[in-house]
Each structure stands twice: as structure tokens, then as C-alpha cells.
Amino acid sequence: MKVKTRLSLFCSLAFGIVFAVISVLIYGLYYRNVERTIYRDLEKTARISALFYLEEDELSTSEFDKIRAQFEEIVSESAYVIYNLKNEAAYGTQTFDVPLSVLEKIRQSNRHAFATSEYLCYGIFYVDNQGDFVVIAKENKELLTEQASRLLWILFPLFLVGVVVIILLSRWVAQIAYRPFSKTITEVNNISTNNLDIQIKSPQTNDELQDLIDTFNNLLAKISETVVIQKNFVRYVSHEFKTPLASMLGNLDVFSIKDRSPEEYHQLSEKLMRQIFQMEEILDTLIVVSDLRKDEKEIMQTRIDELIWTIINKLKDIYPSSKILVNIDISPEDESLMLVDVEHTQLLIALFNLIENAVKYSEKDNVEISLRKEVDSLCLTITDKGIGIPREQLLHISKPFYRADNTNTIQGSGIGLSLALRILDRNKVRYHIDSEEKKGTIVTIIF
After folding, report:
1. Which terminal residue of the chain has fewer beta carbons within 10 Å of its beta carbon, N or C?
2. Separation of alpha carbons 82 and 138, rounded Å
3. What is the Cα–Cα distance from 110 to 434, expressed in whole angstroms?
4. Which of 251, 243, 304 is nearest to 279 (CA)?
5. How would you classify residue 153: left for phi > 0, otherwise alpha for psi between -120 and 50, otherwise beta?
């Protein structure tokens, strides 16, 4: 059963039960109210009857005439009887059997309402100079039954009509309530592996549906990011392997020009093995960063200043004319800040790409690297005076293969910066990039 049908059914059932309960309450209250009104009229009939028959000798003519008028208006067509102390009918239009226990109860409580199988009765105890009397007035139950039946015939069709209206309204309300779900289902069905970057439009209703859509969008964003990274894993590998492979090919090319001594062969083999091991570490790191495998390595502390000198030495081979200035403003007692808990190869790739970008886009201007203490943290700043990044495009620099509009004349793939930022995010390292076109870029990293 669909949620829409179930919601309609539950609403109809709930409102139908409520309507039925309200109808029963209305019927019961009306019945009691009519019954109470009849008893009140019977009490009035009994009192006027007592005054008419028992007070004539004590009232003036004008006063009795008023009683007579009320008697003829109210009591003349009513059934009543007046009993004396001997429980005999002294006055009345008709006699009817009343149990002695009821008569005694009326005398004790001064008034009493009771019912028989056919009548509603009301009795009062009336004390007079002629003696003590019990006056009882009665009314056939047909009046009460007739009015109750009339109300029942009104309520029953109203109940049926109300149930039909409730069912129709419930279906209409359920359709309106389910409409956002139908729209969301349609949008989800339109999503494929080729358009995972599409987000389902949030209804902004601050309800469970919005929570569900927001949660799904977050999941979709994570899946999209993973799929994109996995699809482009080969490009990441080729980008990171380009430098060590070029170095290896260069060494082999130079070495093959002429015959070499066994010692020179041994040195070359050791150098190539180191570079192969380095490539293996890079490959493992890229697999981990791409979420293709969990990082099961025990993280060893990495010394930042040593890592920076290693990167500078590598960049000197690629960009011989580059000028990198390093300023270390760390006192001896704070030297422990230089050790950070980030896996060595991952941090090497991240910082290498950031510093290489600064060198590549600085157009032979100096690149400044500074290390300083900030509060209780180590702050690394990479500053260049290159072409910069347009401010409106800074939000997109973490996307793989994204390049700013002003980089068309400089060779690049748009992989290095996104990979570096992903490594920093993965290791929960804070960073901030501030850039202005034609003025340069400042990358600040807080360990």
C-alpha cells in the first residue's frame, strides 16, 4: 500500500471515529437536555396543581385567578395526581399506580424524578393547612422518543455525508502532502552516474522531508566526489609520476651515451631503486587519498623544515631559475612544533604541489616560505607574487582539473592543487588561500 493511500485511509478512519464520537455525544447531550426540560416542566405542573387545589382557601380572589390562569394554560391537558397521607388519590385527572416506596422517598427528599416503562414522572412533597400531600405529574415518553428520533434521523445522514466528505478531503490532503515526495522521486530517478553533481532541490519546509533530501544530497555529494576521484585516478598517477619518470629517463639517457664502469652502474641502480621506491610510495598515497583503500600505515611524525628543503632541492632540478626564500621564525624551545602528525608521503605530495604552483605561476619572482609559531600551532605560509587567482574563482580551485581563466598560457592540468587540498582535508589540516589577480597568492597552513 502506498504512503499516500495509507495516509488517506488513516485520516479517514481517524476523522470518522472522531465524527462518530461527536455525533454520539451530541445525541446523548440532546437526549439528557430534553429529558431535563421535561422534568422541569413536570415540576412546574406539580407545583401549579398543588396551588390550584390546595391554596384556594388561603389566597385572595385576584391571586387565585392568576393561579387559575396558569393552571388552565399549563396543566389543563397534563396528567397529574395528588396523594394524601393515606396514599390515596385526592385530586387529579387520572390515577396511576405509584409504588409506596416512591411516595415515601418523595416525602423524605421533598422532590424526586423517576421514570416508568411508559412515563417520565416528577413528584413533590407539599405541606398545607389541609394536610401533607404528594403531588406527581407525568409525561408520556413518546415526546422524548420522538425528539430523540428526529435528531437521530438528522445525525445519521450527516454522518454518512461527513464520512464521504472526510474521505474525499483526506485523499486531497494526502495528494497535496505527497506531492513533494513524488517530485523528489522523479528527480532521484533522473540521476545517473553521469550527473551525480546534480542536487535535489530542497523544499525549505523545515520538516522530515527536507531532512531526508538534505541527507540524500550530502550522500550524493560524497558519492559524486568519490566517483570523480576514482574516474580520474589515472590522471592523478600520471601527474605525480611525471617528475620521477622524467628523472629516471634522463639518467638512463645520459648513462647510455657511453660505456660505464661497474661502480657507475652500481650508483645508477641504487639511484633508480630509490626513485622506484619513491614512486611506489606515491602510488600507495594516491590510492589512499582516492579512497580506494584504507590507510593502514602507522603515521610517523614528519619534520616540516626538512621536508621543505627536500622539496626545494627537487624543484631546483625542474625550475633551475627559481628563487625560493625560506624564513624560519621558531625559537629553540618551540622546535617541537616542527614535528607534525601527517603521513610523510602525503604531506610531501601536498606541499610539493603547493610550492611548485607558487614557483610556476610567479613568473620568476621570488617565492617566500615562512614558518612561525601562531598561538600553540605551527603556521606555514607560501607567498608568491605571480598571476594570482580571480576572487570569484577561488571557490572552485578544489575541484579536480579546474584551472582559472588567467592560466591558459601556462602549462598545467589542474590536478596538483586539488590533490594537495584533498590531502590537507583528509588529514584535518586547516588552510586558507588568499589571492588577488596580478598581485599573487598566499597559502596559509596551520598544523
Report:
1. N
2. 12
3. 98
4. 243
5. alpha
